[in-house]
Amino acid sequence: MSSLISSIRSYYSANIVGRVLAAHASGATAGTVVSHNYANIPGAIPLPATLSLELGDVIKEQQANITYRFVSDLPFKSRASHELDDFEKRALGALRANPQQTLSDLTRVGLTDTLRFITPVVMGQACVACHNTHPESPKTDWKVGDVRGIQEVIIKQPYASNVFAFKYLLCYFLFVAVIGLSFILLQRQQARAIHGANRDLEAANEFLASVSLKISRYLSPQIYKSIFSGQKDVVVHTERKRLTIFFSDIKDFTATTERLQPEALTEMLNEYLTEMSNIALTHGGTVDKFIGDAMLVFFGDPETKGPEEDAKACLRMAVDMQRRLGELKDRWRRNGTEEPFVVRMGINSGYCNVGNFGSNDRMDYTIIGAEANLAARLQSIAQGGEIVISYETYALVNEIVDAHPLPPITMKGIQREVVPYAVDGLTLGADHKSRVLSEHLSGLDLHLDMSRLEPADRLRVRTALKEAIAALDDALPEAARLRQDAGQM
């Protein structure tokens, strides 16, 4: 508003007053008179200051809460002095020192805020010419850019009136607030319902997790994972796949049960099966089932690395089982068991039917086929602590195994003769110089892994083996020793 009024006054000063004064200066004295008292002079026009004052009255009539003041401490002689309060006096002094600023003041009385803006009234060329020649001017040395006075806009903002003026907006806000509050209450109610549902769901999940954990104890981890991940359906369905089958049992287990108390036997058997299962899982084998003291493991389903790698993994598993069994037997002997378990193992490779066998109400994930029976037969002809493999398996693992053939065997359901191989140890290199020897009999547990034997310990092992050979020689009957000496000669 202040800028607008200044523009109006400047226009009036330049285009009305300036033109009239210019006409008088050229000698045309008859004509329009410029006066603050223009209303009493026919044909006169108001001074710019008079115009500003009257515009302020017009503004006040239009806006009751807005006041426009045009005041100066140097009024014309015929005019009454303007009353300036402290803020206006300070503002006038500050603007004369620096006209390039706008001053404001905000005061609050009760529920009414009063905002005041003050800008300078700067003398233009036309104004200077008029004031310096006017007979009633209090000062005749005005220069362009001097601050003549101030123009001030005063705006009063009564809160009560504003609130009433925005009643429809307030009604809208109140309506929105009610809707928002209802939404919040609904959200809280839903949150409580969801929280309760989450508690029930967590309880159900905990129960299902507990049941799932219990069920997992009856399944091989690979089968459990494939079922619960959705990779396999729980329906009666089988596939024909090339597998490597491992079968083991404890030699003379019936006689062992007679020597041991049931509690000790149960503890030893559970520990043995647990350790063997962990080794099987480490090598990627699927533990099919436990048949008393026997154990059936197969490689190639549900995950496979190819027939050759599956067979090698199975053989390494069997060797690791014999090694671990030797450690267990040493501990069992220290605990008072004179003759711990001696385990026989058989391995065969071939095609079997694998999948879910049974009824819609009760099924078992297992393998069926002559190749599985052959693995059991190979185990039965193995000596205690020995691993016997079929020719099919030997062909797949010959790069890593030292083995010698055994007499061929025949088996019901298999037309050909089967040539079994007894495993002497594993080779760790193509030159077959680094070997793993494993032999486990009643009274003997030998597992020699050259790759893991420190150079400093090899002399100690050599000495121990020599002492063992000497002890065996001393234990031979005299006649047998003589025959042995004769044979050496």
UniProtKB/TrEMBL annotation:
The chain crosses the membrane at residues 165-186. The keyword Disulfide bond does not apply. It comes from Rhizobium etli (strain ATCC 51251 / DSM 11541 / JCM 21823 / NBRC 15573 / CFN 42). Residues 244-379 form the Guanylate cyclase domain. One of its GO terms (biological process) is cAMP biosynthetic process. The keyword Hydrolase does not apply. Keywords: Membrane, Transmembrane, Transmembrane helix. This is Adenylate cyclase protein. InterPro entries: A/G_cyclase, Adenylyl/Guanylyl_Cyclase_3/4, Nucleotide_cyclase, Tll0287-like_dom. One of its GO terms (molecular function) is adenylate cyclase activity.
